[in-house]
Design brief:
- By secondary structure, the protein is α/β, with parallel strands linked by helices.
- It has a single domain (2-246), classed as Rossmann fold.
- 36% of the residues lie in helices and 27% in strands.
- The chain has eight helices and ten strands.
- The chain has helices at residues 46-53, 76-86, 102-112, 117-130, 146-158, 176-193, 204-207, 236-246, and strands at 2-15, 18-31, 35-39, 61-66, 69-70, 87-90, 164-168, 197-200, 212-217, 220-226.
- The protein has a six-stranded mixed sheet with strand order 6-7-8-3-9-10, with helices on both faces. The protein has a four-stranded antiparallel sheet with strand order 2-1-4-5.
- Strand 7 (164-168), helix 6 and strand 8 form a beta-alpha-beta unit.
- It is globular and about 50 Å long.
- The termini are far apart.
Length: 247
């Protein structure tokens, strides 16, 4: 079942008298429980596509269908509601509120949606255990390492049981060990909880944790690579494909 689908997705920007096609007719489908990585050279449209998929920006043309809802048919308010209830975001720089504890940051989407603590307490405890932060639940961000802060961000993305998690360079600000822990956590959320994930990354090692890699160049999908179930996949083919795009 498709959780996310785009049809002829196009995004144009004006730079003086020049029209830049950041996305150029992208057709893209993500199935439930799939882990998809998006890769491409700088300026290929990766981040623009991520913003479109999450309803954070509007396309110039084409359609995004998220959890069965066509975003072009929704008002800005209803798009916000659909995004809040169906999309979890994980960013490179965590985006945690410094005055809140780990558990308060995780619970924030539920509070914004008007949920009562008793409605999500069990889920919150489960996620703290999942990300191995039960003993850090009362710590604020400045009392946590970068890897721990990113684990808080992942738990926050999962608290609403979203249809899809969109991760934008989730390991880009971490050391290799912490980055690997985050990737294993994302992989586990797919394997054990059938969570759907789309991740933008420039890192072949990070992409190797996905089920499928989609390659972008000049705003177009120019290829894809399906990977086997082994999370220790060889990255040589991924690097080869990237080199071909950048040449």
């Amino acid at each position: 079942m498709a959780i996310l689908e785009t049809s002829r997705l196009t995004k144009q920007y004006q730079m003086g008298k020049v029209t830049v096609n950041a996305l150029d007719g992208v057709d893209f489908i993500v199935e439930k429980g799939e882990f998809v990585a998006i890769m491409g050279p700088s300026g290929s449209g990766k981040s623009t596509l991520m913003y479109m998929l999450g309803g954070l920006d509007k396309p110039t043309d084409g359609e995004v269908t998220l959890a069965g809802k066509k975003l072009s048919l929704l008002s800005d308010h209803n798009t916000t509601i659909v995004r809040r209830r169906n999309v979890g975001f994980v960013f490179q720089f965590y985006n945690l509120l410094p005055t809140l504890t780990a558990e308060e940051n995780i619970a924030l989407p539920m509070l914004i949606d008007g949920k009562r603590p008793k409605d999500y307490r069990a889920k919150l405890d489960q996620l703290l255990e999942l990300v191995a932060l039960t003993d850090r639940r009362h710590h604020k961000p400045d009392q946590l390492s970068g890897g721990q802060q990113q684990r808080v961000a992942i738990a926050r993305a999962l608290i609403t049981d979203p249809a899809i998690v969109l991760a934008d360079e989730p390991t880009g600000n971490l050391d290799s060990r912490s980055g690997e822990e985050i990737l294993k956590l994302l992989r586990r959320s797919c394997d054990e909880f059938q969570q759907t994930i789309v991740m933008v990354t420039h890192d072949a090692k990070a992409a190797s944790y996905a089920d499928r890699i989609v390659f972008l160049k000049d705003g177009k999908i120019v290829g894809e690579l399906r990977l086997d179930a082994d999370a220790t996949r060889d990255t040589r083919e991924i690097l080869k494909r990237l080199a071909q795009l950048e040449s």
